[in-house]
Design brief:
- Strand 3 and strand 4 (142-155) form a beta hairpin.
- The protein is of the alpha+beta class.
- Helix 2 runs antiparallel to helix 3.
- The termini are far apart.
- The protein has one domain (38-166): Nuclear Transport Factor 2, Chain: A (Roll), CATH 3.10.450.50.
- It has helices at residues 3-28, 38-61, 68-77, 81-89, 91-100; strands spanning 63-64, 104-117, 121-133, 142-155, 158-166.
Length: 168
């Protein structure tokens, strides 16, 4: 084999490898590259915060006088700090009020916006609503709208609510 043949063979092999890599990259996108980009990590962090905020808002807005134990446990599971202490201290009166009023409430989240985010805390604004039925509504379902500010804290790999405020 002469020198030109060897060079052409090496170039052909390199070309085949590059074309193969391009095909894989075109099919799998950025998943074909090892690791993740800073933008992908930030997007995942934002998604984690939003998911936790949605879950805790829905848990907080859920009331069923016949199932208060499991419902309040869900709220406490997503809570920490000041919010957890305040919620725990109001559990007895919350359960009594829900039972005496035969309250049922099912929440929904309309929009979530992240305000300030750093590596271990975030401020989240939630536009939510709930359908409420109790003795005060004379058994009729009423719509309620809520604007809520959540202060989130990262504990381990979980985002938890450390403060919950209704905003006007």
């Amino acid at each position: 084999m002469n020198r030109t043949s060897v060079t052409n063979t090496v170039l052909a092999v390199i070309l085949v490898v590059l074309i193969g890599w391009l095909v894989v990259f075109a099919v799998q996108g950025s998943g074909a590259a090892p690791g993740s980009t800073p933008a992908e990590r930030k997007a995942q962090e934002y998604a984690d915060i939003t998911t936790a905020a949605r879950a805790e808002t829905l848990a907080f807005l859920a009331i069923d006088h016949t199932k208060m134990g499991p419902l309040t446990a869900r709220v406490l599971d997503g809570a920490t700090g000041t919010f957890k202490k305040q919620y725990q201290s109001s559990l007895k009166s919350l359960k009594e009020a829900a039972t005496s009023q035969e309250s049922i409430s099912k929440g929904h989240v309309d929009q979530i916006g992240l305000s300030e985010v750093d590596s271990d805390s975030a401020s989240v604004f939630v536009a939510a609503g709930s359908k409420v039925q109790n003795k005060g509504t004379k058994g009729k379902v009423q719509d309620r709208s809520w604007r809520i500010k959540l202060t989130m804290a990262k504990e381990g790999s979980r985002w938890l609510v450390s403060q919950l405020e209704f905003v006007g």
